[in-house]
Amino acid sequence: MPREVDAEQRLADIAAATIRVARSAGSHAVTIRSVAKELGGSTTLVTNYLPSRAALILNALDRGRDRWQVALDESLAEAAPADRFAVVIEWSLTTGPDEPVLRALILEIVANADREPDLRTALHRESSAYQQLLVEEARGAGYLEPEHVAGLAYLLVRGSYVASAEDPARWDEAQLREVIHATLAAQPRTRVDADPNAHQRTT
After folding, report:
1. Which residues make Cβ contacts (< 8 Å) with residue 149, sequence separation at least 6?
2. SS3 of 78, please?
3. Are 89 and 157 contacting, i.e. CB atoms less than 8 angstroms apart?
4. Are 143 and 134 in contact (CB under 8 A)?
5. What are φ and ψ of residue 82, in 5° steps?
6. Does the predicted TM-score (pTM) go above 0.70?
7. Buried b vs exposed e over 71-95: b needs ≥16 C-beta within 10 Å?
8. Confidence of residue 202 (pLDDT cuts 50, 70, 90)
9. H or E element in which residue 92 lies
10. What is the largest CA-CA distance in the chain?
11. What backbone phi and psi angles, to 5 degrees, belong to 143?
12. How far is CA 107 from the centre of its chain?
């Protein structure tokens, strides 16, 4: 009788192997074959659960996003309303062991979105949700033009992924934080209780 396989655990194992391949050989090296080899099995070890390279990448990003969301929810629960926007930005810039790899995979989605309908749909869904979050929290933080500030924040954060990939020595995490927080803190607010230095309490 064949041993039962926990599908969720197998998907988590595949995601971890995907990240290891991307870390060691670059995001372009992520394929069904390379991930299966990392897992020590044939390609069916992957394709039984994820039928395409796009699904492989999205599986890794979805599991990374779930971890990010837990961390964000915990931080927002402890933040005052005027500070929540800065908390979201800080969360967006925080780098753990897997974040550089996951951000490289996001750039891989951007590069292949035109050729991969599933990637394009996932990119649009994730982008829209993130932008909506920024608008809501910018409004709660009392910015005079929350939609403008949210758009600026989106461009700064997404641009930071490219900058850190291009020149990590120049654009390390501390430098990116300083530039982005300073730029956003300079935007006018309507509320006197809004604290432009809120991010300093989260670092």
Report:
1. 85, 134, 138, 143, 184, 187
2. coil
3. yes
4. no
5. -70, -15
6. yes
7. ebeebbeebeebbbbbbbbbbbbbe
8. very low
9. helix 84-93
10. 68
11. -70, 145
12. 10
C-alpha to C-alpha distance for 42 and 35, rounded to whole angstroms: 9
- 133 sits in the region (left: phi over 0; alpha: psi -120 to 50; else beta) called alpha
Residues 6+ apart with CB under 8 A from 64: 15, 98, 99, 102
User: Which structure tokens are listed for 73?
Assistant: 């929810």
**Structure confidence by residue, pLDDT tens digits, 44-72:** 999 999 998 888 998 998 888 888 888 89
Q: Round to whole Å and give the CA distance between 36 and 56.
A: 11
Residue 104 near residue 22, CB atoms below 8 Å: yes
Per-residue model confidence as pLDDT tens digits over 103-124: 888 877 777 777 877 778 888 8
Closest by CA to 53, choosing from 67, 36, 73, is 36
Query: Whole-angstrom Cα distance, residue 182 to residue 191?
Result: 18
